[in-house]
UniProtKB/TrEMBL annotation:
This is Glutathione S-transferase. Keywords: Transferase. GO terms for molecular function: transferase activity. Residues 126-268 form the GST C-terminal domain. The keyword Phosphoprotein does not apply. It comes from the Bacteria. The keyword Transmembrane does not apply. It comes from Bradyrhizobium manausense.
Amino acid sequence: MADLRIFSYLPNPRVWKATIAARFCGLDIEVRGALPKELKDWLWDYDARPLAEDERQSLSPLARTGRVGLTGAQLFKTDAFLAAQPFGNVPAAFGPGGEVGIFESNSIMRAVARLGAATHQLYGRDAYEASRIDGFLDVSLVFARDAQIYLLALSVGAVDATIHARAKEAFAIYMSGIEQALSPRRNTLVGNGITLADVCFAAELALFMNEYARADQLTSLGLDKILHAGVGSEYPLALAHFDRLLAHEHFRPDLAPYVDKLLSKIAA
């Protein structure tokens, strides 16, 4: 049995925070899911699976109205799923057996690090390093919130100048902090090795690169790309760190193909 099971839309860099951490820690993580538009045809449960056509009627009492990302969609969520996942969102992680639910990608990643602490100290060597890591993870949540609103608006053609400005400011604050943390010629954000702070940074930046796929939309609205051609000169240490992490054996399987696909949008 897997150490942790995760149900989510896929591909999803926020899920990969956990799978990257699991490679460092030698844990077995099971990931179930499908494309976002296909999740309305799944049973949301510890034993998540695609619904058979005849089940939609028999399971109609489980139907709930989707919100963020799946607004208005009819989603089939079991009572057990909602007991374990009180906010009803994905990614949704479960301990063995499904009774214990873990929600929010940073907390799922922390669970992996705690489970594998004897193998690799991704969560720091002591309480001080762990608390510094928490600081980076907390700041990432502020960036992630505005980034999600921005990327969702881009995906449905609803972005406007206000949403764009908020995302641009959040990106600048987040990246400036990462740049400063690396400025004393450091190769990682906390301590002397890769930690959850680095894993989270790589995943969130990879997700934000979805802006590349919507560049034409921004141009048509007269809005600048946040990930413009000169962004590397603004945050050279942060982006060099991102490249190092992409090349790492534990990051590469998940993030490299995803990033390469998005970078190809620029060439196209």
